[in-house]
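job 3f2a | input accepted
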Amino acid sequence: MDLIPKKRPMREISSLRRDMDSLWNRFFDETPFFGSTTEEWFPSVDISETKDKVIVKAELPGLSTDDLNVNLSDDILTIKGEKKEEDEEKGEHHHYIERYCGSFQRSIKLPAHVKTNKVKANFKKGVLIISMPKTEESKKKIIDIKVE
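job 3f2a | predicted structure (148 res):
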């Protein structure tokens, strides 16, 4: 009579899991990430609102105002720009390339109507800050409730 080993499916699944984890760890530990430096990228944006204005902040490190174009049309703010690729030094060998370059465009629907002729944009330490005063119609009004 031959002995037939009892199947232990959980042990086999655990073994498979360990093998897969090992494969992923080896791949990411040993293989540098070579992303295309011309892939499309989107800067991080914060949108906030006060009683009187809408504020948009966009992180744009490595850019200058010459690389940017901001416009506002029908309550849609569009930020366009291009981050240029840096020149490689001769004999330079890259281990990781994680910084993107190339053109980008972010279009943002504003949460309120703003006065287009009063928009201000400042660029400081790689952060674009756009301040847009609200129109009188878009400011929230408190309505008193009368008791009858």
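job 3f2a | Residues 30-38 have pLDDT under 50 and may be disordered.
job 3f2a | closed
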